[in-house]
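ok, trying the design again with the full structure, not the truncated one.
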């Protein structure tokens, strides 16, 4: 896996761990828009939607749940 993809995967896992981009940005010191773009790039690369998101909702898709369960332990 390329370093950029791994970074995007890490930011995805952090966003899930903290329940959204705003909360994750406080812990990762990465802006919320950057986190959102990283997840969008990850989704594009995987060809799967991982998170249903809008201004008031942040919910994992089935693919997102599987991805998080598989890769989150790597970053703990």
């Amino acid at each position: 896996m390329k370093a950029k993809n791994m970074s995007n995967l890490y930011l995805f896992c952090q966003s899930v761990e903290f329940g959204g981009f705003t909360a994750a940005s406080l812990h990762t010191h990465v802006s919320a828009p950057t986190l959102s773009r990283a997840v969008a790039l990850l989704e594009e690369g995987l060809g799967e939607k991982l998170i249903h998101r809008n201004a008031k909702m942040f919910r994992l898709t089935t693919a997102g749940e599987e991805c998080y369960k598989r890769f989150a332990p790597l970053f703990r």
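Keeping the full-length input from now on. The beta strands are 51-54, 57-60.
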